């Protein structure tokens, strides 16, 4: 079974080195050190779908970690130089090596986080990068700011062997996916799943089960995939968020995942955890208890 | 089985109302509306361990949601007026009604988040609260800032029927707990669990299983509790983070949870998910597969 997208970077993040400026300076000039080439904050890839690495020049880069001892860095680029998320990028991701996508995802998330934290939220002073790019510090009030990861629940409500799928207006044609929403302060994963399904589809759920997770670098979510039992199949759609929803059978989900031309809907792409979630559900012959 | 601490608030967060200033203004003057009394950002509680609610005065409060139709608000207090986290507060939590602790947790997390986002991270301008306290907006560059939730993994490495417990130097005497650490950008829950156990104890793990989650309002974590299989029981302690670690048997964990005077260690308090995690593990007679 394929692991979720954007996982498997398998780099030693070596976070104990981040605060050690002497060691980081040594790693920058290490003969094997490499700097990731970015186009804005998008990946530069070669004809075989691999990331492009260059000798390290300059400093102040993000320390990605050690890859079998080789120090890897990524540039921290100026705000505004990032290409916008676009379907062209998603086409690129379909061609990229999975491990490379995971490595690039770290560089993208950290860069967008830096862009949102140029000034100190506590006192308004311009901040500086520290911890080899894994933080920003205020030279005035001393506040330290750390990279943000937003947990998001993404889930299938299940009712009598079918699961609830929905589409947002901006999706590509025919695409349907799982419901999703940000976990708010003061709620568990299970409570967020129940709240989001109630808000978006008017359905009460119970018995929330965790399935898998992935980092999602647009800009920096932790996607937490779950399945829950729906008390009813009567949908009350939140039309501010969604334009349609329906209950899909296992056969319909399998056909969509296989890319069958006559499938009822188009599946989310393999690098999205909605695909992982649908794949795992569709491979169950019957519901485990 | 007890649900994890800080869950079960069971309030309708009614997030569709947050942007509706007219409706929020109506709810503020609703005859049944109530405002949470805080002491700094600590809870004020009465002699029976319940939160104290007062008629709503003023405006600009945080809208907590609807409790059986009754609008509940919490004050957004000035930065610096928050009492420091202290063991006295933890004693209070042991006496608090569980549902009330969950409601107060939301108010505490949101208040500390506001204090860290007084100025816009993008441009340095002073921000203003919007969405009934569930966001801050920059009047200059227009950037919107949303409450932050930091996902943290907390986990037991298991080896031949025993689990790894450790203590940090600031713990109360005799206390041991599960290892824990922040999920970083670019990693899944499973990858974060493996990285943290490797960093803190030098142990390789596989087969990470999700167990439960809870919000933790100090200041705003989402605690994600897992169990994983350890490849070895040879501990290489990270002495920067931990002062001791050992492998605990089910009997030792049960004795600690029961508060037995001759227990090998002191268990984490019931409102911490480490307690939930140890309780669930100790109740398994044998490992499920």
Automatic annotation (TrEMBL), chains A, B:
Q: What is this protein called?
A: NAD(+) diphosphatase
Which residues, by range, are in coiled-coil regions?
none
* Top-level taxonomy: Bacteria, Pseudomonadati, Pseudomonadota, Alphaproteobacteria, Sphingomonadales
Q: Which GO terms describe its biological process?
A: NAD+ catabolic process; NADP+ catabolic process
Is-annotated flag, keyword Metal-binding? yes
Could you tell me which residue ranges the Nudix hydrolase domain spans?
147-274
Top enzyme category: hydrolase
Which cofactor(s) are needed, names only?
Answer: Mg(2+); Zn(2+)
Q: Which organism is it from?
A: Allosphingosinicella ginsenosidimutans
Q: Name one Pfam family in it.
A: Zn_ribbon_NUD
Q: Which gene encodes it?
A: nudC
Matching entries from Gene3D superfamilies are given as: 3.90.79.20, Nucleoside Triphosphate Pyrophosphohydrolase
E.C. number(s) listed in UniProt: 3.6.1.22
- Reaction(s) the record says it catalyses: a 5'-end NAD(+)-phospho-ribonucleoside in mRNA + H2O = a 5'-end phospho-adenosine-phospho-ribonucleoside in mRNA + beta-nicotinamide D-ribonucleotide + 2 H(+)
């Amino acid at each position: 079974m394929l692991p979720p997208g954007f996982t498997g970077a398998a780099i030693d993040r070596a976070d104990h080195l981040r605060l050690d400026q002497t060691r980081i300076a040594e790693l920058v000039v290490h003969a094997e050190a490499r700097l990731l080439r970015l186009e804005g904050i998008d990946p530069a890839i070669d004809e075989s779908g691999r990331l492009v690495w260059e000798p390290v020049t300059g400093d102040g880069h993000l320390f990605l970690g050690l890859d079998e001892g080789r120090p890897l860095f990524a540039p921290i680029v100026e705000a505004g130089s990032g290409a916008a998320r676009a379907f062209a990028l998603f086409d690129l991701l379909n061609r990229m090596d999975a491990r490379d996508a995971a490595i690039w995802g770290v560089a993208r998330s950290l860069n967008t986080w830096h862009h949102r934290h140029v000034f100190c939220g506590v006192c308004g002073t311009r901040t500086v990068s520290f911890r080899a790019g894994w933080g920003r510090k205020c030279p005035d009030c001393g506040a330290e700011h750390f990279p943000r990861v937003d947990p998001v629940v993404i889930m299938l409500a299940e009712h009598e062997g079918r699961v609830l799928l929905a589409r947002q207006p901006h999706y590509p044609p025919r695409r349907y996916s799982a419901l999703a929403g940000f976990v708010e302060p003061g709620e568990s994963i299970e409570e967020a799943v129940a709240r989001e399904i109630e808000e978006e589809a008017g359905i009460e759920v119970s018995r929330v089960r965790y399935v898998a997770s992935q980092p999602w670098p647009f800009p920096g979510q932790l996607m937490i995939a779950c399945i829950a039992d729906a008390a009813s199949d009567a949908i009350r759609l939140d039309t501010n968020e969604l334009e349609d929803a329906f209950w899909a059978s296992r056969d319909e989900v399998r056909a969509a995942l296989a890319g069958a031309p006559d499938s009822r809907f188009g599946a989310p792409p393999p690098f999205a955890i909605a695909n992982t979630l649908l794949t795992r559900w569709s491979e169950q012959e019957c519901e485990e208890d």
